[in-house]
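Worked Example 4.2. Consider the chain below.
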Amino acid sequence: MKSFKRPLRLFYWSMGVFIVLLNLVAFIHAYKFTHFSNATVVRTRDPKELSMSDKLVTLVFGIDNPRPTHRSKPNVPYSTIKISQPDTITCWQINVDNPRGVVILFHGYAGDKSQLLTRSKLFLDFGYNVLLVDFLGSGDSEGNTTSVGFREAVQVKACYDFVAKETQPIYLFGTSMGAAAIMKAMHDYSLKPEGVILECPFGSLFKTVCARFKNMGVPPFPMAGLLTFWGGVQHGYWAFSHNPERYAESIKCDALLLYGQRDDRVSLDEIKNIYANFGGYKMLKMYPAAGHDVFTSGNVNQWNRDVFNFLERRETPAN
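Applying the procedure from the previous section yields the following structure tokens:
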């Protein structure tokens, strides 16, 4: 009997140590994914560009995630706006003569407002004022963390409230995490913009974490669930409830959804579920040659037409 208990005890101890180590690795991954490091650190490359040894190091120690900084500034007159909520968000405001409305632009994960300048130029050409926003942790805004669209919803509301002081149609534009933050803000605070333009929003935080492990060639179970759990714990929320597919049910205004069919982070099923849950006038535009970033040089003209047609309601949306 004693000879049987000893290996069993060893097995239990081994499993216990394994589980602790697994959670420790997940905790580190979650921390490095949502806490930006020094801006001089080189960001971990796309999984497709990593060697096998680099992937192993990344799987154990997590990604290198430098704080996003501006790559450029507007080449037209602009104002710097600071919005407190209570931490300070910094924005660039660019106005046109006789505006038809205003578009508020929100960047994606590990991005900043300078990445939205080219898109903002097109909205200016359409006759709209623009407000380009740095989420907390990015660019000129305070902080050093991201919650991947969850707490960023509060920041979306703060920017919306700032712009809503003037009577004008408001459109909300967001890409990836920015799109998810808009959808959560619509769900939580019943914002009433004229419309929303959303590029490649993920269906849920858990699904997008799973996709990142798949891109590394690693099965999502169990690490994706553990990383999602610990990321939520570190930021004080239940991360499995961060679900833009469900948030979409609260969007009753005009909605344009843009998707790259080669996207390896967001599935077509997620996009179809989001689109199906919109409750108002809606359009879905897909770009066959695009990945997670639909605004590439080969797609700019089509993006321009799709957004213009949406703003002008030039098309009857498909059922």
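The beta strands are 79-84, 88-94, 102-106, 129-133, 170-175, 195-199, 254-260, 282-287. The chain has a mean pLDDT of 92. Compare this with Example 4.1 before moving on.
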